[in-house]
Each structure stands twice: as structure tokens, then as C-alpha cells.
Amino acid sequence: MIIKKRLATGALGLLAALACGLISPPAAMAGEPAPDSPKVELVLDVSGSMRARDVDGDTRMAAAKQAFNEVLDATPEEVRLGIRTLGAKYPGKDRKAGCQDSERLYPVGQVDRTEAKAAVATLRPTGWTPIGLALRGASKDLSGGEGTRRIVLITDGEDSCGLPDPCDVARELAAQGTHLVVDTLGLTLDRKVREQLSCIAEATGGTYTAIQHRDQLSSRIKQLVRRSADTPVETPTPVRGAAQCAKAPYLGSGLYSDRESFGEHRWYRMRVAPGQELRASASVAVDRAVDPDYGVLVRAVTPGGRELVRGSEAGGGRTDVISSGLRYPVADVDDDEEVTARTVCVELSQSFSAPASVKRTPGLPVELAVDVVDNDDPPADVAAFGLGRGWVLLGVLTVGGLLVGLLWGWLARWRVTVWRSN
């Protein structure tokens, strides 16, 4: 009996200590990212060419270190982040040894900022540039879990090893279907480097960015890390829109991916029944250099060509993605009318353009989200233009306000009359 009392007392004391914060809860209870949290690995080129002093008067390596420190401070709590290097260890001329030089600098997981920054501080520009090998290593570092996976490759040169070819590795990773995207950042404007990094990014649905300034490097990496936290885990279904509505594919509710050439129009079809609402949104990603003015348009149109509703967005300057969307409710029918779903054509077009030196194929990555839901809007007599379809509500408010004003005026006059009579 005494032992049981002591155990009970001990248990109560432990619960009290936990409640008061005297005993730290297990890591999983202390905010450790869940197994399906997004994962990001930063892959940094530490080859000898990173000694070049052409980023705002400092070396490429110094700019990368500063950017990494700022990114580590800004990493969202839900993101598991790691760092891998290439060319950081072997300084010699033996090609075979140099092309095996890639290692994990900081494991993918919840970020210990002090530890990660200390690891980054030890880096010195050293060896070769085995990009293909590093991409395969990063893919293994990110394995496991059900969340999205993103590799951010920062380099100032093309692969110096040849095998495995980085573009082939990127295609392998894309074929695995594991939500893996590779974004590439080039610290040089060299044409061959741009072509190789663009190829890697395009193969996985990622983006390529040419970096010229320190602040641009930090800002872009932060943006990509944050984007990984916002990206849905759902894998888009590949689809190919048609050049006209009559030949467009029918889509069900879901997430779809397509590619659209500069200035192209793509059509898709949905079936929407009375009492339902069509919701569609489209995002066009910019994975190559484009001209500074652009826009995207999403329209819902009848098969006969009559426009029902549209959504558009435009911008200027540098961007990574631009989105627009629309909602189109179909009025319900009377009980004695036949309920038949009607076809609605959805058109997606964009006004991106680019210099002649920029590749036109494949087209820009497009993500299309469509859904058909039951229309829960208020009845037609009290819902429409802002206050809705029915000026009934406006009339009621106006008449009600007038009556209240008249009544208040009559009461005021009555009070004055009574006061004077007394």
C-alpha cells in the first residue's frame, strides 16, 4: 500500500512538473517537425572557382556563406533542412578522386542554427565540381517521409566530371515520382553553365536563376525554402490542353500540370451541374529569363464562345510565378426541371516573352487546380452584386432606416411638447 501511494505521488509530481515546464517534454512534443514535413537540402559548390571575387566586391564563397547564415535564421520551423557540399575536400588533380568529392555537411532535420552555421564557417574553396554525384547524394539525404522534397543547387560552374551527367541524374530523380524538385542558382552568366543548370531545373519542374548580387542570392534561397513549406504534397496529374475548346480534354476536380509556350492559349473542359460552382486557378512558373512585362488570364467560356467570367493578373520586373483564378456558379433549377451538367470551357493564356537567346521548348511549367463544389451561396433574391442579386435586401434596409428616422423624430417632438406643457 505504501509503495502504491509513493508511485501515485511520484506520478502526480511528474505531471505537475511537466505542467509547470520544469521538465522538458520529448523532442516530438517540443515542436519537432512531423514525418510529413517538407524537406530541403542546400547543395553548395565549394570548388576552387568559388574563390573568384566578383560578387559585390567579395568572393563567391563569402557571398554564399553569408546567404546561408541568413537562410538558416529564416528557415520555417516546419521545414527540415540539410546541407551538402561538392568539391569541398579534395584539392588535388586526380580526376577520379575529385569526382567523388561530395559529402553531407549538415543532416536533414530540425535546424540547430548554431551548429549549422559553425559547419558552414569551416568551408574553403577547394576542388572539383561533381554536380551529378551531389544530386544523387542529396536525393538519398532527402529520402523517407511523405512530404515534399526540394534540392537547391548553388554553383558557379558546370559539372567537371561528366559522369554521371547532371541532366540525366535530374531526369532519373523526376522519374522516381517522389515530389522532388531541383532549383538551380548560377553564380555566373556563362552560357554553358546556364544551359546545364536550366536543363537540371526543367527536368524536375524546378527553376533556374542567374545570381549577380549577394542580396539576390540570400533572397532567392529564402524564397525557395519558404516555397517548400507552401507546396502541396499532392502530385499534379500531367495533362495537355488543346488549341481550341472543342478538342480540349475533360478534367475532374484535381491538380494538373502542363507546359505552355510563350503567348500560347490552352483549353480544358469541365462539366458543371446546376447548383454547383466551378473554381479554377492557374499558376505559370518562370524557369528561364523572360522580358519584364507579363500577365496571365483564366477564362470560363461556353462551348459556343460566350465568355462567362474571367480572372487575370499582370506584373512587371522579375518574378518566379504568377497566378490567377475564377469562380463560376451555375444557378439551381426548379424541382420539375431536368438536372443536366453543362460543359464549361476553361482557357489559360499568358503573355510572357523572352529574348531570342532563350529556349522556347519545353514551354513554361503550368499548374492548374480545378474543382466543382455544391453552390452554397444564398438564394438568388438576396445574393448578387455585392449585396447580391436582389435589391430586396437593399430595399428593406432603406425602408427600415426611413421608418426608424420618422419614429425617432416623432418621439423627439412629443418629448418637447410634454416638457413645454409642464
UniProtKB/TrEMBL annotation:
Q: Which Pfam families match?
A: VWA_2
| Residues annotated as domain VWFA | 39-224
Q: Which UniProt keywords apply?
A: Membrane, Signal, Transmembrane, Transmembrane helix
For the keyword Transmembrane helix, the answer is: yes
- Give the signal peptide, or none: 1-30
PROSITE patterns, per database record:
PROKAR_LIPOPROTEIN (PS51257), VWFA (PS50234)
What InterPro entries would the database entry show?
CLCR (IPR051266), VWF_A (IPR002035), vWFA_dom_sf (IPR036465)
> This chain belongs to which protein, by name?
VWFA domain-containing protein
Q: Could you list the residue ranges that cross the membrane?
A: 391-411
